[in-house]
Design goal:
Layout: H1 2-21, H2 29-52, E1 61-64, E2 69-74, E3 87-96, E4 99-107, E5 118-129, E6 134-140, E7 144-146, H3 161-169, H4 179-182, E8 187-193, E9 205-212, E10 224-234, E11 245-253, E12 262-269, E13 277-283, E14 294-296
Antiparallel strand pairs: 1-2, 2-3, 3-4, 4-5, 5-6, 5-7, 6-8, 8-9, 9-10, 10-11, 11-12, 12-13, 13-14
């Protein structure tokens, strides 16, 4: 009897460990980075467009036409979307009739949170598309500057026409339409619709397509976390806590070697519930226990 009881307890303990292993919460830190970075760039694109069009800027922004720099003070009254920090943003830009490029420096603003410091972005192309009624921008992982940076990124005078035009041409690349394809591409496309209010930067409709990694994120099992977003829509006036539509994928790949071993992934959908959560449409691997549940995004 004692042996049978011991065997039963051993089996029960083992089963619990297995259940725990496959009931882990989807790890979405990489997705959180992509959302916050994309929202910040969409905000900056909209500001640059207002300057290009000659509109009067809000009181927390100043355009120095001599230096070609836009200074933005971020505070509680004028927040950066999905960010509760205060600080300053400086934007340099160059444009012509075919489009433009911009460089962004984030001063004293913790965009990503934690120990990872996003200093700025370099040479982000953008173009107005009247037929789509939007502004299209994009960025690659290599455009993201981590750690400490240099104000030389704000000097666009060194950019020749060949580089300028090549960055604009990249906007013609095909946008991803499948989260499982976008997850490893390390490119993000941003569509900004200004809703006929070009100086209200919070009611813009931002649509994100793309994915990869902003910075390396390791999962609890040692794998590397990637993310993707397809038709992910953000309207900060409607909701300050989460995207209002679209899909995202968080995927955990085992470190090292090819082919990549998928340790688990979670397909999420966003809804206009404004509760700071995403709905888990499908989870596999170690996250399978979260199918059909809501998880917090913790974007602020």
């Amino acid at each position: 009897m004692i042996k049978r009881l011991s065997l039963f307890l051993a089996i029960l303990t083992c089963s619990c460990h297995i259940a725990d292993e496959y009931n882990q919460k989807p790890e979405i830190e990489s997705l959180r980075q992509g959302l916050k970075t994309s929202a910040a760039i969409g905000y900056c694109v909209s500001v640059v467009n207002a300057v290009v069009k000659g509109y009067t800027l809000p009181s927390n922004m100043v355009y120095d036409s001599n230096l070609g720099l836009i200074y933005i003070n971020v505070d509680q009254s004028h927040p950066l979307p999905f960010n509760s920090n205060v600080g300053d943003i400086v934007i340099a830009f160059s444009h012509n009739t075919s489009g433009g490029i911009m460089a962004i420096s984030f001063a004293n603003i913790d965009i990503l949170g934690g120990s990872i410091k996003l200093y700025g972005l370099n040479l982000v192309p953008f173009i107005e598309r009247p037929e789509e009624n939007d502004i299209l921008a994009m960025f690659f992982k290599q455009d993201v500057i981590m750690g400490s940076g240099s104000d030389t990124i704000l000097d666009l005078s060194r950019i020749d026409n060949l580089l300028f035009n090549s960055r604009i041409e990249e906007l013609n690349n095909e946008q991803p339409s499948d989260v499982f394809v976008a997850v490893k591409q390390n490119v993000w496309f941003l569509s900004v619709k200004q809703n006929l209010t070009p100086t209200n930067f919070y009611d813009d409709l931002l649509t994100i397509n793309g994915g990869g990694q902003i910075a390396e994120v390791k999962g609890s099992s040692g794998g590397i976390i990637y993310h993707a977003m397809i038709n992910t829509e953000v309207n900060y006036s409607e909701c300050t806590l989460n995207p209002i539509d679209g899909y995202a994928l968080s995927q955990n790949f085992k470190v090292g070697g090819e082919p990549y071993i998928d340790l688990g992934n979670s397909l999420l959908s966003f809804r206009n519930t404004c509760d700071g959560k995403a709905y888990v449409e499908l989870s596999t691997g170690k996250y399978v226990g979260y199918n059909g549940k809501n998880i917090s995004l913790n974007l602020q």
